[in-house]
């Protein structure tokens, strides 16, 4: 039996401080033959009872209810309401990224339990601003990331306020309102995979995406630490709400998923422990493999794009050997 056929149980290994069960699981929605029960369990695991997706959905509802300027105020561009959006995004990014950073790396509340990589954040490393990975990541995330996120926010909110963007209500489109929440993972995964593959074209990688990949050992601030050009492409998915009929809650949810979820997906830990057991799944070992081996897992587990296009790394030694050969060919020059 080869390594790719074995199911390796969660725990430490030669390469990792800790890893989940291998091979890395992706959504069973597109598996063949179809497995309806596995698909139902996958959706339930991602949405019920209190998961990261559900937290963002509840936050989006609360934001729409209490933290959005009146639509009539956003019909015309002005510093007042745009700065209000910017301040809200800035505060939320700090709460999520710095909160996780302090819990996992500053206060070390759960030690190395569920931590993927044995290494910590880089210090005295000249590739980073001020030779420090933490401050480098914070600077790119807040100055570039939050600002560009807010610019897209402002464009779409003006669309809703002026009738450019098609807006639905729960009452007018109840089925589509709930179905869109289930479709958004597929939409985001499609955009992320193909944008990410383009960013790994060597010429683009060297000038743009390498800023993000300097963080080989990732932490919460690493996820939203990108070159401004990458932020423009990554957060640009928000512009789909200028053409896709949606409620503003969907738009807010997508913004939180794109921006805030980078802190959890790059946390470097599989689970957030609040007590004597794992309470919330946060990290993505699928993406952790990408940060270690680079030319693999360009997408995310929500859609099997990597499986379909030959860039999937399932955590096995054979996959590591294959990806290293791919990297040598791509960057030979």
From TrEMBL:
It holds the Pfam family FA_hydroxylase. InterPro entries: Fatty_acid_hydroxylase (IPR006694), Sterol_Desaturase_Related (IPR050307). The chain crosses the membrane at residues 53-69, 90-107, 138-163, 175-195, 232-259. The keyword 4Fe-4S does not apply. It is found in: Membrane. The keyword Nucleotide-binding does not apply. Keywords: Membrane, Transmembrane, Transmembrane helix. Residues 182-311 form the Fatty acid hydroxylase domain. This is Sterol desaturase family protein. It comes from Aliisedimentitalea scapharcae.
């Amino acid at each position: 039996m080869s390594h790719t056929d074995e199911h390796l149980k969660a725990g430490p290994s030669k390469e990792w401080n800790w890893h989940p069960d291998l091979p890395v699981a992706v959504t069973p929605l597109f598996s063949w033959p179809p497995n309806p029960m596995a698909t139902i369990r996958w959706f339930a695991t991602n949405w019920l009872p209190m998961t990261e997706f559900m937290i963002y959905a509840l936050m989006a509802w609360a934001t729409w209810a209490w933290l959005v300027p009146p639509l009539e105020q956003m019909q015309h561009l002005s510093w007042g309401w745009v700065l209000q959006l910017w301040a809200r995004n800035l505060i939320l990014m700090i709460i999520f990224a710095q909160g996780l950073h302090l819990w996992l790396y500053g206060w070390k509340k759960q030690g190395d339990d569920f931590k993927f990589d044995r290494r910590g954040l880089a210090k005295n490393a000249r590739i980073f601003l001020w030779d420090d990975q933490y401050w480098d990541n914070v600077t790119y995330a807040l100055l570039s990331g939050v600002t560009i996120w807010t610019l897209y926010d402002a464009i779409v909110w003006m669309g809703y306020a002026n009738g450019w963007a098609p807006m639905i209500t729960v009452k007018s489109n109840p089925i589509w309102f709930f179905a869109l929440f289930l479709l958004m993972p597929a939409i985001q995964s499609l955009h992320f995979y193909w944008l990410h593959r383009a960013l790994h074209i060597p010429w683009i990688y060297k000038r743009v995406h390498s800023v993000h990949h300097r963080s080989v050992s990732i932490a919460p601030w690493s996820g939203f630490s990108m070159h401004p050009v990458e932020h423009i492409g990554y957060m640009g998915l928000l512009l789909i709400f200028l053409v896709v009929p949606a409620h503003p809650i969907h738009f807010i949810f997508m913004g939180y998923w794109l921006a805030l979820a980078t802190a959890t997906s790059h946390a470097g830990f599989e689970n957030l422990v609040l007590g004597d057991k794992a309470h919330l799944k946060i990290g993505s070992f699928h993406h952790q493999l990408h940060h270690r081996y680079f030319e693999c897992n360009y997408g995310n587990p929500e859609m099997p794009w990597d499986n379909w296009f030959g860039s999937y790394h399932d955590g096995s030694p054979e996959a590591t050997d294959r990806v290293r050969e791919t990297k040598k060919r791509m960057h030979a020059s």
